[in-house]
Amino acid sequence: MKSLNEFVALFAEQFDETDASEITASTNYHDLDEWSSLIALSVIAMVDEEFDVALKGDDVKNSRTVEDLFNRVIAKQ
Amino acid sequence: MAIVTYKGVGISALSACVPSRKIDNYHYGLDIWSESEVKKVVDKIGVKERRFVDERTCASDLCFAAAERLFRDNDIDRREIDLLVFLSQTPDYRMPATSILLQNRLGLETSTMAFDISLGCSGFINGLGIIYGLLQSGGYRKALLLDGETRSKVYSRKDRREAFIFGDAGIAALIESDEKYGTSSFSFNSDGSRGNLIMIPGGGYRNMSSIETLTEKVVDEYGNIRCDENGYMNGADVFNFVIEEVPKDIKRLIEVTGSDIQKMDYYVFHQANAFINNYIAKKMKLSRERIPWTIQKFGNTSSVSIPLTIVSELKDKMKGKKKLMLSAFGVGMAWATAIVPFVDCQISDIVEI
Fold this sequence. Notes:
Chain A is mostly helical. In chain A, 53% of the residues lie in helices and 0% in strands. The longest helix of chain A has 15 residues, at 37-51. Chain B has a single domain (1-353), classed as Peroxisomal Thiolase, Chain A, domain 1 (3-Layer(aba) Sandwich). In chain B, strands 2, 5, 6, 7, 8, 17 and 18 form a seven-stranded mixed beta sheet that branches. In chain B, strands 1-9-16-15-14 form a five-stranded mixed beta sheet, sandwiched between helices. Chains A and B meet through helix 2 and helix 3 of A and helix 1 and helix 7 of B.
């Protein structure tokens, strides 16, 4: 099973313009300038590929921090 | 578990028509969004260009032009067509059915059975399955499947989530009985619990057309604008649906029919957007050389995208016997997979009007 740190790194890879150093487990990703429905699609694809979990739109919308989202992924595994 | 097989029916000829008006997506909507915002969307969905009809042209007109071309190229006797199906969610009128009007326009006999099928992205495979079943029953000589969409008339150009994806096109497929085609297998699925993922909520009989349904509103925190008679799409949940259902359905049909997925000549997917299509190709570990693409030049043309992709990309590659796997998914939500043999299918050049 992947750790929270690995999840944060994979999450950060989905951004083009936001430096990985700006994204930590406690980052509220909705506040990032680059966050958009397009990035959300990449995150859903990454989670499917790495965790074999199919996230719904609400999972991504209602989680606040990267760690919240990680916990949802783990709960769905 | 609707897995169905038919024997001795196939597509003998195929033609397509697109509007001549090209939309250059990198330069679309620049009055609303910045160049960099547009570029991000276009790069992600991979639709560089698509075609739009003018206000007066309907899906039926695109299909009509494609059908005339098909008749001419294949020297078809129109009196032999006993069945005409028009597949679209952008018909000419709420009534009568567009297929009936096309019977007359195309000069077919009044003894033709004609009806419309109202399905979106998944529809071509359903249309084929229905016609294959009717033809296998033996009473019909030739059937014509006309599949057309003018999605440019459906979506708001001020709603970024749908404004860049869809294009217009129509096709005509001639379907006949002949032993040479062998067995075709289909898997059909429907899930109305996901009915609100892609929808035009207003203008039907549940929420009838009114000033309210026609009033544009800001619909989200990004400032996207549309009215209830425009279509909308919940992109994240549509993608969730694709992840959950499409690979599973493909695997199931392959398994039930005892096929080898690596032995298909071509895999033709509904052209949803490049992001989704790349995802499926990667997930299913399919050879990219055998997956034709048209998303970059015609966009998502809903149910038309599979046959349009065959006409556009496989025209000179369909000599002899070819086994195609078709996979389509979308509004409904509905999805279908098929393994369909083609034998010397006559493919016309794309008509532009």
